[in-house]
């Protein structure tokens, strides 16, 4: 879904005076006595693509929900700045089945050129000519393309994505990575992408954050040259490092092995995927 969230209107402390798209200091979110986010600090620059990984249950979705303005019950913070114009994409596209694709994309858009913008957005995601199709006529990957179009047609300053490709097959996922990169280069939102897929994080992100014990435990710029295809020693080392930080021990040589194309990470202690 591409929810057009209201941002953190109530939580803003002095607005975005820092030049960052997101700036969080000392964020605490507890459920009962349990602090899922515990004095978390995070900054995302305008146009920056940040991937957020972490073990199941580490609080990734909770953080996204706070930033999206979906979760208002924050326990505390010192600073909590995010833009007003935020879009969210989830694992399922959440299209309205009774509306055609173009209407799904333009829903809530104001202005005389909404239809034109919607058509352009659908073309950008490779669905030109499908404006009058119904969501049910689309594959899962195509539905996620519509969800991306619906997000980006609003030109968000911040795009929050919670495992947007988690339900897609490996081949479709790779195509969607290329599409998302293109879209982000064209629209330049700041992006915070939650993923279990270390290869997805490496393929897409400028920076990978590891969430652990309620905080950002590691902050790793990705400096591999494009295209970031698996196979190089530098890629394998980075992949093994990220997996190790998630509690998965992988010999770097394994990165070239049969599982290298998937890179899915769901640490053994599990939880909901
Ligand atoms: N509404 C809620 N009430 C109580 N506990 C909650 C609630 N929402 C989340 N939690 C707890 O907060 C913790 C973090 O959940 P969250 O969904 O943010 O983790 P996650 O890192 O996104 O996990 P996953 O990778 O499995 O999706 C979990 O232990 C979860 O049970």
TrEMBL record:
The keyword Protease does not apply. InterPro entries: AAA+_ATPase (IPR003593), ABC_transporter-like_ATP-bd (IPR003439), ABC_transporter-like_CS (IPR017871), ABC_transporter_ATP-bind (IPR050166), P-loop_NTPase (IPR027417). It comes from the Bacteria. PROSITE patterns: ABC_TRANSPORTER_1, ABC_TRANSPORTER_2. The keyword Iron-sulfur does not apply. Keywords: ATP-binding, Cell membrane, Membrane, Nucleotide-binding, Translocase, Transport. Pfam families: ABC_tran (PF00005). Residues 251-273 are annotated as: Disordered. This is ABC transporter ATP-binding protein.
């Amino acid at each position: 879904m591409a929810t057009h969230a209201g941002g953190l209107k109530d939580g803003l402390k002095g607005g975005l005076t820092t030049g960052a798209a997101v700036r969080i200091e000392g964020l605490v979110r507890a459920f009962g006595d349990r602090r899922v986010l515990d004095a978390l600090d995070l900054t995302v620059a305008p146009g920056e693509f940040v991937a957020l990984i972490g073990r199941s249950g580490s609080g990734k979705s909770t953080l996204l929900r706070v930033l999206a303005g979906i979760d208002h019950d924050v326990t505390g913070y010192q600073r909590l700045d995010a833009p007003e114009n935020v879009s969210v994409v989830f694992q399922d596209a959440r299209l309205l089945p009774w509306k055609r694709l173009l209407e799904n994309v333009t829903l809530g858009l104001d202005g005389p050129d909404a239809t034109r913008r919607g058509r352009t957005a659908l073309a950008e995601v490779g669905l030109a000519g499908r404006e009058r199709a119904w969501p049910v006529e689309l594959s899962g990957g195509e539905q996620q393309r519509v969800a991306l179009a619906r997000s980006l047609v609003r030109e968000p300053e911040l795009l929050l994505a919670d495992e947007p490709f988690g339900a897609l097959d490996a081949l479709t996922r790779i195509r969607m990575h290329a599409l998302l990169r293109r879209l982000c280069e064209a629209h330049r939102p700041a992006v915070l992408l939650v993923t279990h897929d270390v290869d997805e994080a490496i393929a897409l992100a400028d920076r990978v954050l590891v969430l652990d014990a309620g905080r950002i435990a590691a902050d790793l710029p990705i400096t591999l040259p494009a295209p970031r295809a698996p196979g190089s020693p530098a890629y394998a080392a980075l992949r093994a490092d990220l997996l190790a930080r998630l509690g998965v021990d992988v010999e770097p040589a394994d990165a070239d092995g049969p599982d290298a194309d998937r890179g899915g990470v769901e640490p053994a202690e599990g939880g909901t995927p």
